[in-house]
Write a structure and sequence with these properties.
Elements: E1 9-13, E2 16-20, H1 30-36, H2 44-48, E3 68-69, E4 76-77, H3 89-95, H4 101-113, H5 128-139, E5 150-155, H6 158-176, H7 181-189, E6 200-207, H8 224-242, E7 245-250, H9 255-262, E8 268-278, H10 287-290, H11 314-322
Antiparallel strand pairs: 1-2, 3-4, 5-6, 6-8, 7-8
Length: 338
């Protein structure tokens, strides 16, 4: 593997070496350079003396991958050598597995700008071909044993939506009573559904008998069909965001009552009731965060080394610190508050 010789920036964290490499002729990749700027006393002096730490007029290739992380303690290595240099066969094969810059950036941009939409839906109809694309995305989700246990019930009529909304209103009133008094008031101020406003509603269900009694991958974890169906939900949600569609997941519903309204057979399990449509805007941050209900937890608190509850190792902790602004570097201008 070859390290790009242009503009290598080294940062020592916890006794380990991390390198932000410049594999473009014009300078450090803007997003990578941005992600390397963390408020660490070990890194900041090196960044301050670099001269290329904050990208300005850097260019960016669209047809080959950026740097890729190797084992912590080594450099971030460019899988594609600079122009004029030969590529080893193993490098060429590895490079073929990476998305082009614009495609990879689009994926991360979609991930970090996805929101749970409730009040921002527009009445504009969703074209059937767009709906078809997001359904195809859902259908191509991973499933244990390739069981594909999902079904998709599309709801567009106001009559059915209204019945489902009535179920929500009943369940939501019951849910509010479960919280402490002050929390109840805050809960009741939240808008937690867009059932009638959204042009399309979608119920994703799981058929737990579709693949028979014995299914590859379910012999010791029988709930894997349910988890596989959730993967379809996530696929659909991300595809919808890429299409400019908002999605809201309504989980405050009695499953049996929902099955009765939608004519779902007794053996089928409702997994997600989704509201889908074009939106006036996407929230800058998750609504439950901005409303003060809950905040996103630091990732470092949720990662363990070797054993559950065991402190994260220094190398990975350092890697998380280096990439601390990775999500925010992909936020759209509105979502970044710019």
């Amino acid at each position: 593997m070859l390290i790009s010789p242009v503009g290598v920036l080294g940062a020592v964290i916890a006794g380990k070496m991390f390198v932000c490499t410049d594999n473009r002729e014009g300078g450090v990749i803007p997003q990578r350079a941005q992600r390397c700027k963390v408020d660490s006393p070990d890194i900041m002096p090196l960044l301050a003396t670099s001269g290329k730490a904050s990208g300005g007029s850097e260019t960016k290739s669209e047809d080959r991958p950026e740097t890729i992380p190797q084992t912590l303690g080594q450099a971030f290595v460019d899988p594609v050598p600079s122009k004029g240099k030969s590529m080893e066969p193993s490098q060429n094969k590895q490079a073929q597995h990476y998305l082009a810059d614009r495609d990879r950036d689009g994926l991360y941009r979609t991930l970090f700008n996805r929101r749970d939409v409730r009040a921002e839906f527009l009445p504009q109809a969703v074209p059937d071909e767009v709906l078809a694309r997001v359904l195809y995305a859902a259908h191509h989700a991973p499933s244990v044993g390739f069981m594909q246990p999902w079904d998709f019930t599309v709801i567009k009529t106001h009559k059915v939506k209204h019945k489902v909304q009535q179920l929500f209103q009943q369940a939501n009133a019951e849910a509010a009573e479960k919280f402490a008094h002050k929390r109840q008031d805050q809960y009741r101020r939240l808008k937690l559904e867009g059932i009638v406003e959204a042009p399309v509603n979608l119920c994703i269900t799981c058929d737990r008998e579709r693949s028979g009694k014995v299914v590859l991958g379910r012999t010791h974890m029988p709930e894997m069909d349910l988890y596989s169906t959730v993967c379809a939900v996530q696929n659909l949600w991300l595809a919808a965001r890429a299409e400019g569609l908002g999605v809201g997941w309504v989980s405050i519903l009695d499953p049996d009552a929902l099955k009765a309204v939608l004519g779902i057979p007794a053996k089928i399990v409702p997994i997600a009731y989704l509201c889908i449509g074009y939106v006036d805007h996407f929230k800058q941050q998750p609504e439950l965060a901005t409303s003060g209900w809950r905040q996103r937890m630091p990732l470092a608190q949720l990662v363990h080394s070797e054993q559950w509850g065991q402190s994260i190792d220094q190398e990975l902790a350092a890697g998380l610190a280096v990439e601390a602004d990775f999500p925010s570097s992909y936020l759209e201008p509105a979502a970044a508050g710019l």
